[in-house]
Amino acid sequence: MTQFAVSPEETLHAVSTVLGDMVRHIGVNLGEVTATVSHQHYLEAARLLRDDPSCQFEQLMDLCGVDYSGYLSASPEGLRFGVVLHLLSVTRNQRLRLKVFAPDDELPLLPSLIGVWSSANWFEREAFDLFGIVFDGHDDLRRILTDYGFIGHPFRKDFPLSGHVEMRYDTEQRRVVYQPVTIEPREITPRVVREDNYGGLRNAG
Predict the structure, then answer these.
(1) Which of 49, 2, 4, 1 minimizes the C-alpha distance to 22?
(2) Which residues are within 8 A (CB) of 32 and not within 5 positions of it... i.e. 6 or more apart?
């Protein structure tokens, strides 16, 4: 028998009841419940959301880092780095978006959730690689998309478009080497077409 989808309002009520004071903010956005918890309660909240009968979020569908630079008003206390999770309950046919923010902008650190959802493994490695968010308790936290000689975290908003280093093959050393970027930063101005009869549009029809 197919389980009918739980309404967002029912999910909101269940999550609010289960997490209680752990919730910093909760609401319905675009038909999906979004809840924010503090970093101190992040791990405990994840376990409750997975195990409580009214929630049963068995699957972590996605986990991604976010750099809130430029719109710090969207984060508690103006914190820069956050993590957004998308949870799915197959049993109850409901979804939840869960947010948490790292308390230190200089060293964004959050507990790892691989002990709660094993799928967090690669997602956390991606957030570490691209945003520099460190997940305490992750037993294999290393880059997953960039190579080992890469410097910096490319999805941070202050990361230069040209990067810091470039890679090339050195024929004398017979290996790949890294060197400072040789690309000159330049401003690209879009070309504006001002032809009166561009593309023959005036003759069309």
Answers:
(1) 49
(2) 8, 95, 96, 97
- Mean pLDDT, the chain, as a whole number? 88
Alpha-carbon distance of 101 to 73, in angstroms, equals: 13
Compute the radius of gyration of the chain from its Cα atoms: 23
Widest Cα–Cα separation across the chain? 67
**Alpha-carbon distance 108 to 112, whole Å?**
12
Task: Please tell me what DSSP assigns to residue 103.
Answer: S
Sketch the domain layout of the chain as residue ranges.
8-145
Residues 5 and 33: their CA atoms lie apart, in Å, by 13
CA 58, CA 55: separation in Å to the nearest integer? Answer: 9
Q: Is-contact 109 134, C-beta < 8 A?
A: yes
| pLDDT tens per residue across span 89-101 | 999 999 999 999 9
User: What fold characterizes domain 8-145?
Assistant: Beta Polymerase; domain 2 (3.30.460)
pTM given for the model? 0.80
Tell me the mean pLDDT in the region 22-37: 94
Q: Could you tell me the pLDDT band of residue 105, with boundaries at 50, 70 and 90?
A: very high
Q: Which tokens go with 8?
A: 């967002």
